Every structure is written in C-alpha cells, then in structure tokens.
Amino acid sequence: MSYLKELPINTLKIDQSFIKDIHTNKESNEIAKAIINLAHSIGLNVIAEGIELKEHVDELSKDGCILGQGYYYSRPLKVGAFEDYMTDIHEAS
Prior knowledge:
By secondary structure, this protein is α/β, with parallel strands linked by helices. It is built from four helices and three strands. A three-stranded parallel beta sheet has the order 1-2-3.
C-alpha cells in the first residue's frame, strides 16, 4: 500500500478474485468497495477485471466503479474484430 502514493499511476485495478463472487460474498464485496473508496479518495480511477455477470456490474456500479473489463462485455478480440465491435456499439447508441 505504501507504493500507492509513490508510483506514477492514475488507475487502480480490482483483481478478478474479488469480483467473481462480489454479488454473493460479503467479504469480497466489502474489499472491492474499500478499494473503490480508497482509489477515489486519493484521486485515482478504478477498474474491475473479471466482470462476467450483470450482477457484477450492478454491485460495482452502485459502489462507484464505472470502468470494467471481462467476458460480460466481450471475449478477447483481435484488432480487426475489436474495431468492428466498437463500430457496432457506436452505431447502436
């Protein structure tokens, strides 16, 4: 934790091990919430990895985490497929 104030970072990532059961495990939920609060209180962005379910998104969103990555959004994509994916999302919005 002492490195947080010394490293030139702007984003803190919540490991998927805390996300996988965030919707059913109180301890995981509280740890994720603490990471989100800590990051925001020192001016860092926070991103969650391993989002696979809508329940993950719901729990994280209500606690103030608006960035995430995981299979809920998309499987890993090659560059061309990613560009197509982003184009489709943009056109749908």
